[in-house]
Write a structure and sequence with these properties.
Length: 74
Amino acid sequence: MLFPWYAARILAIESNGVIALRLLKIAGGRREARDEADLMVSEKIDALFEAGGSLCGAASAAMVIRVCQTVLVP
């Protein structure tokens, strides 16, 4: 990866589209909305632990961002 800020920028751009699609699904209501909200929260918790583990393992900022990309952006 070129620079850590470049990886962070790509993550922000990709996650923006994912967030938009998920919010549309949640706005629709019904059972799928609750399932989607539960999935979003569990993914964020998984990403937190993955990033924390990477930081404890002395990973670079770019590596931590890459871990977040794999967990948060399908």
